[in-house]
Request: fold
Amino acid sequence: MIHLLALLAAFAGPDPAPALDAVKTCDRGAMMALTKAEPRRRTEWAAASYAEQQAIARERAALIAPGAAQPTAAGKASLDLALAGLDARQKQLDDARAVEMSWRALVEELRADFLANCAQTKGERDR
Reply:
């Protein structure tokens, strides 16, 4: 569950305002910084996402292990509650993945926009 805390920050995703502003103002330094930082951010996000998915899978497997004794009514209620908690964590992880994919799509569009509208050669700027 510790990894989930790292993912909770991903729900909002990175703040797009600086990147949007960099494209709007053709700020080459800001775009270079974004481009350089993005692979590390993605690696850290992927590692946290993987760890959380693995934790969910392990916990679910432990709860529904084959050959487990039939639970009492109270035990069944506890099991159902634990499984519902895992389902909620899975949905949060799925939401975080959707936000991450949206961010990646935005970054690619920002790069394309920057290259098309800002990355002119010196000779083209002087015209």
